[in-house]
Amino acid sequence: MPATTTPRITVLPKIQPKVERPKLYKVILVNDDFTPREFVTRVLQGEFRMTEDQAHKVMITAHKLGACVVAVFTRDVAETKADRATDAGRAKGYPLLFTTEPEE
Ligand code: TYC
Q1: Is a pLDDT exceeding 80 seen at residue 2?
Q2: How many degrees, rounded to 5, is the angle at CA 54 between CA 101 and CA 39?
């Protein structure tokens, strides 16, 4: 007859996955005195998928107040979009500037 064996129970520690919400970055449109309003509006539509009306409102806000938050993204996306939009102005000889900054 085989000897009886005591069943062994292994208790594993509960592992909590360490997932953190990625930090978000604002893309900011900075006013200048030279870039045509229509051009700014078109860049906003093209790069940030805004309607003409949304883009015009953002452009006018930057024009009046000096700067305006365009949208919020993860760091990579915010920097890529800000660079592409700034480059679109530079390609036409305009000083149009989009910057990024972390959200609080
Ligand atoms: N101030 C510019 C003008 O009067 C238009 C403009 C608006 C430029 C917003 C940049 O971020 C800007 N032609």
Answers
A1: no
A2: 80
Mean pLDDT of the chain: 93
Residue located nearest, by CA, to atom 11 of ligand 1: 31
- The backbone torsions φ and ψ at residue 50, rounded to the nearest 5 degrees and listed phi first, read -100, 155
Q: Residue written as tokens 């949208």? A: 71
One-letter amino acid of 42: R
Question: What number does the ligand 1 atom closest to the CA of 34 have?
Answer: 13
The total number of residues shown for the chain amounts to 104
Residue ranges and CATH numbers for the domains of the chain are 35-102 (3.30.1390.10)
Per residue in 18-28, pLDDT tens?
888 889 999 99
In contact, 89 and 95? CB cutoff 8 Å = yes
Ligand 1 atom closest to 68 (CA): 11
